[in-house]
């Protein structure tokens, strides 16, 4: 087939795996996949991107950080597909939606599974519950997502042990978990506040050389403003996530303490302290 568009796949999660499966059906031979991890960069595909442009084709960068050098970085022929960072938000189309549209597929081809994958990616467990996903669907989506991210049985077991040692702060409005891995989903999946059992409105995860926060949107936006240069996404401004390799644990905790103890909760969970 003629590849007017050439797709370049970013870091792996369930949505990226689903995008690959869609491209295998609808655009076989028109995509490149180097099985990259989160925070993947466009430069990983530099030779292939240049080749596509030389052939008169348009590169589609799917959730890839544009670290290309000028003038390639600003080339108007590049198509950026993402719904995180500057392209985040409640009304933003997910990457799966955007690829589906770029392929020119009719709405009748969109499936419930695509809905589940999309909602999971931008609104996580609260979004899946609001969407009306069954318990079995939610468990299946989250299991497949963790597998796509490369979560190992050891990381699953480590998350359980870390949660047992978790610290609740500020009247229960924040839970602090320390893990030995960079993959946070085994922790957040088990601490989601809308599920029975352990939970907190906000979760702060500390791992080697990295910190991550998941919770109320106003805190996510505040962290991004206080500690620029990290990453964020989710169903903002309601809920979302933020992370950084530069912000220090104590500095982030100080900010969260200041924020949470100066603003009374609006959903009845926890109290100021």
Write a concise keyword list for the protein shown above.
273 residues; alpha/beta; 4-stranded parallel β-sheet
Can you give a write-up of this model?
This protein is an alpha/beta fold and 273 residues long. Helix content is 40%, strand content 16%. It contains nine helices and ten strands. The strands form two sheets. The protein has a six-stranded mixed beta sheet with strand order 5-6-7-8-10-9, with helices on both faces. Strands 2-1-3-4 form a four-stranded parallel beta sheet. Strand 6, helix 7 and strand 7 form a beta-alpha-beta unit. Helix 1 runs parallel beside helix 3, helix 4 crosses helix 5 and helix 6 packs across helix 7. It is globular, with a radius of gyration of 19 Å. The termini are far apart. 37% of the residues are buried.
Parts with pLDDT < 50 across at least 5 consecutive residues:
266-273
Strand content: 15-25%
Classification by helices and strands: alpha/beta
Tell me the span between the first and last alpha carbons. 63 Å
Mean pLDDT: 90
- General shape: globular
Say what oligomer this is: single chain
Helix content: 25-40%
- Give the helix tally: 9
* Helix/strand order: EHEHEEHHHHEEHEEHEEH
Number of β-strand runs: 10
Strand order of the largest sheet: 5-6-7-8-10-9
The largest sheet is: 6 strands, mixed
Q: Calculate Rg over CA atoms.
A: 19 Å
